[in-house]
């Protein structure tokens, strides 16, 4: 009986000691892990919706009962994390863009956008940090190279607003906003829109500083 009590007492001393040595080591390892570079911010531009439309899900090719058949359909998807690499589950990602003829759903653009194109979408980030949208490959319009606007919100906090560009688009070098980026920032915001048959896919990992 006395031997059993001695072993129990020894375990109560050893286990806390092991725990106390492991916790600082784990913290040191987390502190030494390289921080991810935050995604560069860019201007919101003039065409963010005045009012969020009734249909604002992650499929921009369906607006209520209407179906949009113009343009090249595909998927833009990615992850959302903080600079430590932790997924921001529950945050929201928004995108908005012009239709195939270069028009936005916005009174400042004269109301000329095709009503079948949703033009704006919002989706909630999953527990693994993943998000995705179905939309058309972005097209140029007067003065701008092809791009998609993106915004990140977490509750009432706006964490990021930026723009996504198409790698190899001829108008990039003439676009004043793309040209204003450093080489490193251009690389972060300019994506390969990989073709898969009649569709395409682009992947955009988003990192916010907060």
Walk me through this protein's architecture:
The protein has 210 residues and is an alpha/beta fold. The protein folds into 2 domains: 1-33; 62-208, Aromatic compound dioxygenase (Protocatechuate 3,4-Dioxygenase, subunit A), CATH 2.60.130.10. Helix content is 20%, strand content 30%. It has helices spanning 2-32, 176-179, 183-189, and strands at 62-63, 66-67, 73-82, 92-96, 120-124, 130-136, 147-154, 157-166, 190-191, 194-196, 199-203, 206-208. Strands 3, 6, 10, 11 and 12 form a 5-stranded mixed beta sheet that branches. Strands 5-4-7-8-9 form a 5-stranded mixed beta sheet. The radius of gyration is 24 Å and the shape is globular.
| Shape annotation | globular
CATH fold category name of the largest domain: Protocatechuate 3,4-Dioxygenase, subunit A
Report the total helices.
3
Give the % helix.
10-25%
Given helix and strand content, the structural type is: alpha/beta
CATH superfamily of the largest domain: Aromatic compound dioxygenase
**Residue windows where pLDDT falls under 50 for at least 5 positions:** 8-20
Main β-sheet: number of strands, strand sense, barrel status? 5 strands, mixed
Overall average pLDDT: 89
Instruction: Count the domains.
Output: 2
């Amino acid at each position: 009986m006395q031997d059993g009590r001695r072993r129990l007492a020894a375990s109560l001393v050893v286990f806390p000691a092991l725990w106390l040595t492991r916790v600082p080591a784990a913290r040191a390892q987390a502190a030494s892990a390289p921080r991810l570079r935050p995604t560069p911010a860019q201007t919101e531009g003039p065409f963010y919706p005045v009012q969020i439309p009734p249909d604002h899900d992650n499929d921009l090719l369906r607006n209520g009962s209407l179906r949009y058949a113009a343009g090249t359909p595909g998927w833009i998807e990615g992850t959302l994390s903080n600079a430590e690499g932790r997924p921001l589950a529950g945050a929201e990602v928004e995108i908005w863009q012009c239709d195939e003829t270069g028009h936005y759903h916005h009174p400042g653009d004269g109301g000329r956008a095709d009503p079948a194109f949703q033009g704006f979408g919002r989706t909630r980030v999953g527990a693994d940090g993943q998000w995705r949208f179905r939309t058309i490959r972005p097209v140029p319009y007067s003065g701008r190279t092809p791009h998609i606007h993106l915004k990140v919100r977490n509750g009432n906090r706006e964490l990021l607003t930026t723009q996504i560009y198409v790698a190899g688009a001829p108008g990039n070098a003439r676009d004043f906003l793309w040209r204003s980026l450093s080489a490193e920032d251009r690389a972060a915001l300019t994506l390969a829109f990989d073709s898969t048959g009649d569709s395409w896919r682009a992947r955009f990992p988003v990192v916010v500083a907060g």
